[in-house]
Specification:
Layout (H helix, E strand, L loop, with lengths): L5 E5 L5 E4 L6 E3 L26 H10 L3 E4 L23 E3 L4 E3 L5 H10 L3 E6 L6 H12 L5 H8 L10 E4 L14 H18 L4 E4 L12 H10 L5 E8 L6 H4 L3 H21 L7 E9 L4 H5 L17 H16 L4 E7 L8 E3 L5 E3 L3 H10 L3 E3 L2 E3 L2 E2 L7 E2 L1 E8 L4 E8 L6 E6 L6 E10 L23 E3 L2 E6 L3 E9 L2
Parallel strand pairs: 1-21, 3-4, 3-12, 4-7, 7-8, 8-9, 9-10, 10-11, 11-12
Antiparallel strand pairs: 1-16, 2-15, 5-6, 13-14, 15-19, 17-18, 19-20, 20-25, 21-24, 22-25, 23-24
Helix pairs in contact: 3-4, 3-5, 5-6, 6-8, 8-10, 10-11
Length: about 500
Amino acid sequence: MEIKNKARMVLDKDFKVSEIDNRIYGSFIEHLGRAVYGGIYDPGHPLSDSLGFREDVIDLVKELDVPIVRYPGGNMVSAYNWEDGVGPIEDRPRRLELAWRTIETNEVGTNEFMSWAKKANTDVMMAVNLGTRGIDAARNLLEYCNHPGGTYWSDLRKKHGYAEPHNIKTWCLGNEMDGPWQIGHKTPEEYGRIAQETAKAMRRIDPSIELVACGSSNSSMPLFPQWEATTLDYTYDEVDYISLHQYYGNYNNDPANYLAKSLDMDNFIKTVISTCDYLKAKKRSKKTINLSFDEWNVWYHSRQVDSERDPWSIAPPQLEDHYNFEDALLVGTMLISLLKHSDRVKIACQAQLVNVIAPIMTETGGAIWKQSIYYPYLHVSKYGRGNALKPIISSPVYDSKDFTDVPYLESIAVHNPENDELTIFAVNRHLTETLYLECDVRNFEEYQIIEHIVLENEDLKATNTPELERVKPHSNGNAYLDGGTVVTNLASKSWNVIRLAKQQ
């Protein structure tokens, strides 16, 4: 019988994209909505520790194995005085938070967040304010965090109860400075100069740090990619990464087009890489600038509700998208896009981690649950450590409103030589039909299938709630090994994780 929808893939250990930097599975916590207050920090909750941090949230962050978390923003950082968030809590000022028009109580600040990160087994990517502030505030914060002692700011940290330096390695030079919504919005020349000089000052304090320059806020910005070219002309010798931010939504309820949007993400990444390499050639440099995709996700469900909210409350619900099954499928394809470009994308942060456009949701003082997008993130973070492999794929294609030749099969594989495991991540974009897949793995001798995890649901709009988890994976996939070929039928509109391991 002729198989209508058939895809073929070839994998080989030598078809290596890169050794994956685990920070590609990072996340983001901003002082926004209930991400901090009512999210990670909820001192009245019965499961909170002595510092007020919810241990059930920490447990899920540990389950996701999040390697790095960007903090404290985001738009919020561009008018943030970091000094407001250190010292005795009772002495900290309440401020009007201009980015999201709330009141910031400053109960949680730099030191508290570093304590939370230690409990959650994650590192911190710290952002500095280059909106309303600049070199002085940035260098002082770095001295406070990383200098061992014997100076004003490092000794102040000790006075605040933190004898040892935090030794934060990765720093963002502002946030989305090309955006007119940003407090302290700048032209490319203005940002390039302040970022260059701030980077120089910070490196004099701690030459070991890594620095991330602001790229365009998204690929549709009017100055993209000229913003990258101009700002890197100033900062190329001083920074290690340039940032990318991108969110997608299904405003027109067109799932075929929606699930193709990772192709736009691929093009965004390729364009930024090309721009970085143009500057490398222009400057005759041996240095390569890598990418930090430090905001990416689905974000559109909550925008109408947020537009109707009154300002100046404390930790109101904001950006609380309730994700459905089709969102999980798109997140899966976006994770695959990141892995396909892991030779240059070294850091990535799904924005955000708790409550605010997040995989983890809580009720303040109450329950916790996993959103649909939690599962692709979990699977790739858990099984996507090692070497990304470039698959050779032949797949049937379709056209959508904005895209042509969209492959029904979106896939990447990761080989972990330390534990002799091979994991295939695959999405079938077809909305109604299964996709027959043959994957040649002859190069992986003595490997056997140990698990085929599937995330599927007939209802693309199915969501999870505290009471009912309608979108959750199962391990009843049908993959089997026929000689040196993995054979399976990928269910229509499904996320798949096929795991193989070498026989011991």
